[in-house]
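Re: duplicated header lines in exported structure tokens

Our pipeline writes sequence and tokens for each protein into one text file. With two proteins the header for the second block appears twice in some exports. Here is an export where it did not happen, for reference. First protein block:
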Amino acid sequence: TYANVENYRRELDLDTAVASVDFSASGVNFRREVLASAPDQVIIVRLTADKPGHIHFTAGMDTPQKNSAVSIERTNTLVLSGVGGEMRGIKGVVKFQARVQIVPEGGTIIATSNKVTVANANAATLYIAACLFTAHIFRIAGASPILSILIFAALLFHPAQFPMRVIRDNI
């Protein structure tokens, strides 16, 4: 926890479609960048600091849906899965899944049963994707299509150039 946050600044760059927040705390300059890529169905969050080892956070997911659960895959991926609730006596059949893949640079990453903690990292990138599908589609596909979306996004978006695909798609 940092005291005395200063130089807080929010920005939306319409040319790159990146929303960012900059601030200083305890002599460290922090930056948060967010990009939503419609073609890839991924939201990307990039966290950086101008001094090594100052990125620390715990990520988790929650939903008001009763038929849901959060799990961890491969230490760095949060998975929220479930089925929509009953409505007016009709059983819910629409399945949903959201994933947050966390890729730290340096530091440590520790997973518990339903949270991922990053400590002492130099930077971190979070790839967020979600989808809905009916039980019928889920049985045919076997595995969630969202997993391939996240793998593709991680390969596609190098942290230094992650806005470039969105810029090309909007030209």
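Second protein block, exported in the same file:
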Amino acid sequence: DEPATLIRASAISAASLFPRPRIRWPFSSNRAMRFFVPGRVAERYPDKVRRILDEGHEVGLHGHTHRSPTVLTRREEEEELARSLTVLRELGADPVGYRSPSWDFSEHTLPLLSAAGLSYSSNMMDDIRPYVHDGYDIVEHSHIIDDLGGERAHVRLIAALEESGLGHIID
């Protein structure tokens, strides 16, 4: 672990400093949820990843070592994605989504996600409605909406805003 990474809050979310389960079981939800799991965390806790999958939830990519793509070379970023894809697939996941460890993209992120066959990203905060990234076949699902309830959450939020008279803030 790099010293600069260890002091960042995002490193804590990757269980780098405190290797204990973050989700307490029994964990139940009446809807499928998305878990963005760093490859290194999946290597450390394979049974947790399998359990997430067994309970019908989605596992998406979150880098391998939880480093921001903005500090990686193209080759390093590609290796991070490939390594995490391999680990997650070996555990039975079929990742189709990506959340950057830092919510940031490098100039290489979108082409690498597209080349890896991923179909969506859950990073940007510029629109609550899903959209396709220009020049790529990657759909952006706002991570804010994604965290609030998945694919259809944006529809519920827009309806609630319009009903409350605040619909103009999304136009």
